[in-house]
């Protein structure tokens, strides 16, 4: 869909508002085709995986390679130097409950630089090291709080024209309940996703991708990484910075992503095991939902979005999901044995809540290799009945969004698997 369509927050019930209006989208469960999922625990040579050691040595690398080669593209191994500049620090943030810090990341390849702004909150009441949630915001750090000292990202002016409602401070505070997160003893590290890859056609030169050797030279390879790969890479660069902060418990870092960032969070967690909990919220096709169900957002739709989120190789599966040698239950299984959580919304049919649940359920055999519990049944759960096993899940009432209910469930899940933070 080449035309850009702006939608209000109230109307943003689907992961891609313009594409959601397509008349050929299936929302009829009776029209979901019969399908067979690729076997999670059979190697490409036909060998049955029966131990965690086999999974880690043989099957997991095979699955990771499939997603790199045919869905998300290959993340370059070339290191881009980065310098950190602390711009502000406020030990009395959120009414004295937290210490905030704004940090400029300056990436440089020697010829070109890219800047990104990290907003970090750490609770003042926690003794010892602090667990942290990492996650991108969609509308700039300024959108997450009414605090007038929070800076605007440089790239935001590229994607939003002057006077656009997204320039308003606090326009997405509903998605970032900092007070509640801090009160539970967790820190938050957030960055505007446009800082890493501006999500608007024609701005790839302003993305992290443009810093890497070979950028813009010749035709793109089938496995060329795109926006989701870049956003996942950026999440790991946030982790690099957090590792320099003595107060942060690096063994208790969770990543949470919503919608397209739920897709990126899963890919980040699959590649970087420093993320000890991985949370996908309403991520849909190319995220948590099974592709073979062809319900709501499909491979043809999601791989046609511009700027491209997925590598060109994914285009071969338009309308041919059954030919894919992988499906999203395998992506979720790549988190094993780390806890993973999938969240859905009842009215978010575009993201296929049932497909998200089934994907999480069918990831269970990988966790069973470690003696860990997945989801209890192939029958999807009713609303507001979260499961917090090593594979966790909930579906809530409402639309495509991140709500207080979601955050309370994420915090409960983290408490269960990290242990509750120590308060003074």
From TrEMBL:
Hydrolase as UniProt keyword: yes
Record InterPro entries: AB_hydrolase_fold, GCE-like_dom
Molecular functions (GO terms): carboxylic ester hydrolase activity
Domain of life: Bacteria
Keyword Nuclease belongs to the record: no
Annotated signal peptide: 1-20
Protein name per Swiss-Prot or TrEMBL: 4-O-methyl-glucuronoyl methylesterase-like domain-containing protein
Organism this protein belongs to: Parapedobacter composti
